[in-house]
Amino acid sequence: MKFASEFRDPVAARALLSAIARKVDEIGATRARPVHIMEICGGHTHSIFRYGLDKLIHEGIEFIHGPGCPVCVLPMARVDECVEIAERPGVIFTTFGDAMRVPGHRKSLLQAKSTGADIRMVYSPLDALELARRNPGREVVFFGLGFETTTPSTALSIQQAAREGLTNFSVFCNHITVPEPIKALLDDPDMCLDGFIGPGHVSMVIGIHPYDFIARDYGKPIVVAGFEPTDLLQSVLMVVTQIAEGRAAIENQYARVVPEHGNPVSLAAIADVYERRASFEWRGLGEIDASGLRIRSRYAAFDAEEKFGIGYAAGSRNVPEVEGCACGAVMTGKLKPTGCPQFGKGCTPDLPLGALMVSSEGACAAYWQYAGARVAAE
User: Fold this and answer.
1) CA distances from 337 to 128, 351, 360, 377 (A)
2) Are residues 195 and 240 in the same domain?
3) 251: which residues sit within 8 A by CB, 6+ positions away?
4) Mean pLDDT throughout 258-270?
5) Rounded to a whole number, what is the largest CA-CA distance in the chain?
6) What is the pTM of this model?
7) Range of the domain at 112
8) Residues 63 and 88 reside in one and the same domain
9) pLDDT higher than threshold 80 for residue 299
């Protein structure tokens, strides 16, 4: 295929929907409930709603929204620590735009900016590096946030800062990893999952084998998927085909982008700059062992936690969520966004209570953007 329109071909989509329906009917003959498929990535959630796949697909399939939005799973305490760094004299705090409006316990980064903190939205950590070069008398801090997709760019920026001796540049590292929360969900007795749509962009970096344990240890199929409608429909078909055949494997639908063993340059940079934390706190999931990354001691001069004595370096604290906000339950797939009592009432994109309503990959934002008043009414 040469053009995006080919991945949105209605004829191909109808053929895939029919094939899915046949497989689901075959599975349904032996079970009384829908097939629960979790799309791990928030980008997939938005694609499902953007193209109406949740309405088009066989009623015997239910999409469960997973914890694949890195802004959304960030606990409120980390936002508070970002604000604390940003409000220090002489600091230029830089971040991706998604994180600007995420509420902390006291305020968001955008609110801190409005009261005088020098907070700047950047598109890359390289933008933060350039700010450090231009402002040698100020501390420039980059908010390192995201799954394995964004970890290489932060790592490469730290390596470049080390080569140049830019010691006024540092990273507040909140990078996290995908496989560990999936294991936590599979170990949760309250979760009922039959298969997974795997994150394409994460897998572009790490490959497909970090997910082997899902099929091997839990007997659940997982298919790494692209983001166009026919990508997702083909991936769903691959999942339900495995279920119908009574097997579980890791399969790669997104092979045009995702190499089996990942990107070796990216993986080398990650291994050089980061090491695993003993544990990391996730919104809705609590502390998960070895699910976060920290900067290695050889790059301590570029570690904002060490430089400012904040975060896990200072015994980071837990902050309770806003009362009545169900971000944790929505994030872990236990509740649909419309099941949150604040959805469309106390929590809207203009006045968000939680990160899921403001992030470009948040499940609540997907419901609101693509279903709007209909979903709020439901």
Assistant:
1) 35, 16, 15, 12
2) yes
3) 221, 222, 223, 224, 238, 242
4) 97
5) 70
6) 0.90
7) 76-176+292-314
8) no
9) yes
One-letter-per-residue 3-state SS of the chain: CCCHHHHHCHHHHHHHHHHHHHHHHHHHCCCCCCEEEEEEEHHHHHHHHHCCHHHHCCCCEEEEEEEECCCCCCCHHHHHHHHHHHCCCCEEEEECHHHCCCCCCCCCHHHHHHCCCCEEECCCHHHHHHHHHHCCCCEEEEEEEECCCCHHHHHHHHHHHHHHCCCCEEEEEEEECCHHHHHHHHCCCCCCCCEEEECHHHHHHHCCHHHHHHHHHHCCCEEECCCCHHHHHHHHHHHHHHHHCCCCCEEECCCCCCCCCCCHHHHHHHHHHEEECCEEEECCCEEEECCEEEECHHHHHHEHHHHHCCHHHHCCCCCCCCCCCCHHHHHCCCCCHHHCCCECCCECCCCCCCHHHCCCCCHHHHHHHHHHHHHHHC
For residue range 51-101, list pLDDT tens digits in order: 999 999 999 999 999 988 888 888 888 999 999 999 999 999 999 988 998
Per the domain annotation, does 258 fall within a domain? Answer: no
pLDDT of residue 33: 86
| pLDDT category of residue 343 using cuts at 50, 70 and 90 | confident
The total number of structural domains that make up the chain: 3
Q: What is the pLDDT of residues 157-167, one digit of tens each?
A: 999 999 999 99
Task: Count CB atoms within 10 A of the CB of residue 366.
Answer: 27
Residues 183 and 211 in one domain: yes
Between 370 and 1, whose confidence is greater?
370
Cβ-in-10-Å burial (0-12, 13-18, 19+) of 138 comes to middle
